[in-house]
Write a structure and sequence with these properties.
By secondary structure, the chain is α/β, with parallel strands linked by helices. The protein has two domains: about 30-215 and about 395-415, Glycogen Phosphorylase B (Rossmann fold); about 235-395, 3-Layer(aba) Sandwich (Rossmann fold), CATH 3.40.50. The protein is built from 15 helices and 14 strands. The chain has an eight-stranded mixed β-sheet. Strands 11-10-9-12-13-14 form a six-stranded parallel β-sheet, sandwiched between helices. α11 links the parallel β12 (about 310-315) and β13 (about 340-345). α5 runs antiparallel to α6 (about 170-185), α8 runs parallel beside α9 and α8 (about 245-255) crosses α13 (about 365-375). It is globular, with a radius of gyration of 24 Å.
Length: about 425
């Protein structure tokens, strides 16, 4: 460019109006309430950290594990632990009492902090649905409230305590579900199957969003080093130990093939009301040296354990709840390159096919045993499943869901302000 033209271009720039940079966005004050252990709940942790990473301030009111601090900051999230919880809670009366106690404590803590400095938005994680009322004061002050239904409570209650859907307790929980959804500004639902059910009885059309609980790939990614697994072939399950998860079926299936595959072990990581029953079953089937029950470990430590496995097991029952409850652990196995055997539940047939998981007939321990033996003996089948699953999980990442969640939060704030 000639010097004269260059000087002219400078003069033009001086004459042109200067565009002001957009004003900085004010960090939001976000409140979350969850009747869970924060450090082991991937869904709560991911939402909270997503908000913190864009500069927002997040308080999470949650349960306390033995030995953990009452209050601490984890990856920028302020975690406030209100009370403990029994790991193997089986009594309905004890279960209800502890939830009501947590609700009362959460209500007091949220109200006090909201009076000190108003929260911009509240995100309540269910179960139970009635936790939305811990945010009564912020809601009355016009704060948008998200109800995030991880599990549908009436069906969960029926499965856990063995009651009919015609029972008074089930119908009462449906009423609570409807009131909680109507009290909220918006409802997040964990899968499309449950959205259909909730739209039919509790949630208004247009008032819900499905956000599948996909793994955080910044946590669930294979390491570059090969894990030392010794000379043992490891089957693995990680997660809650409830009856609907079908771990007893998996233990019985493993007992049928253990003598055919002497170099194979089955490790289970987790806690829940079925743990003592599983321990008794392992003793009864003389599997103490082959099936190992481990304590639940923090989420960020789980990928290193998954990476040592050759095969993941997700043996859910096909009762009303288990048939429709999506298991994030399937995608976590996929993200870590571990092939997985899955019960052919309605929800899993909806999202997966035979190219990415090995299905077995739900609640059929003989068919599960055959699936275990088949994949143990055929490494090429495991490899094919892992390769297809890697492509699947790459397309179902948190990144697009993250933007959808943030857009939902900002949209609710905009609606509240208008």
């Amino acid at each position: 460019m000639p010097v004269a033209e260059f000087q002219d271009s400078i003069e033009d720039e001086k004459k042109s109006p200067q565009v002001k940079p957009p004003p900085k966005r004010r960090p939001l004050r976000v409140c979350m309430v969850a009747y869970t252990f924060y450090e082991t709940d991937s869904r709560v942790m991911r939402y909270a950290e997503t908000l913190v990473q864009r500069g927002d301030q997040v308080d999470v009111f949650t349960l306390q594990k033995p030995g953990s601090r009452r209050t601490e900051t984890l990856h920028g999230v302020r975690v406030r632990r209100l009370q403990g919880r029994l790991f193997d809670e089986k009594s309905l009366r004890s279960y209800i009492w502890r939830i009501l106690l947590f609700l009362t404590r959460a209500f007091c803590q949220v109200s006090i902090r909201d009076l000190r400095q108003k929260y911009d938005i509240v995100h309540i994680h269910s179960v139970p649905d009635l936790l939305v009322f811990s945010a009564l004061l912020p809601r009355l002050r016009g704060t948008p409230l998200i109800l995030d239904i991880h599990d549908i409570l009436p069906e969960f209650y029926a499965s856990r305590f063995g009651v009919s859907e015609r029972s008074l307790g089930f119908r009462f929980l449906c009423v609570v579900e409807r009131l909680s959804a109507r009290f909220s500004s918006h409802v997040i639902i964990a899968n499309h199957t449950w959205q259909e059910r909730l739209l039919s009885r509790s949630v208004k059309p247009g008032g819900s969003t499905v956000l599948l609980n996909v793994p955080d790939r910044s946590i669930f990614r294979p390491s570059k080093k090969n894990p030392d697994t010794g000379d043992r072939f490891l089957l693995l399950y990680h997660g809650t130990l409830h009856w609907h998860q079908g771990l007893d079926l998996a233990v019985r299936a493993f007992s049928k093939i253990k003598d055919l595959v002497p170099g194979v072990d089955f490790h289970i990581y987790g806690h829940g009301p079925s743990k003592s029953d599983l321990q008794s079953l392992i003793e009864e089937l003389h599997l103490r040296d082959r099936v190992v029950l481990h304590e639940q470990i923090p989420l960020r430590e789980m990928p290193a354990v998954i990476e040592t496995a050759k095969l993941g097991i997700v043996p859910k029952r096909k009762d009303t709840f288990g048939n429709e409850a999506f298991s994030t652990k399937i995608l976590e196995f996929m993200a870590m390159g571990v092939p997985v055997i899955v019960s052919d539940t309605k929800v899993d047939r909806h999202y997966f096919n035979d190219s990415v998981v090995r299905f077995f007939r739900g609640e059929d321990e003989d068919d599960l045993a055959r699936a275990m033996l088949d994949l143990i003996e055929h490494p090429e089948k495991r490899r094919a499943l892992s390769e297809c699953a890697a492509e699947f999980v790459a397309k179902n990442d948190w990144a697009p869901k993250e933007q959808e969640y943030l857009s939902l939060v900002d949209g609710l704030l905009l609606s509240a302000a208008s």
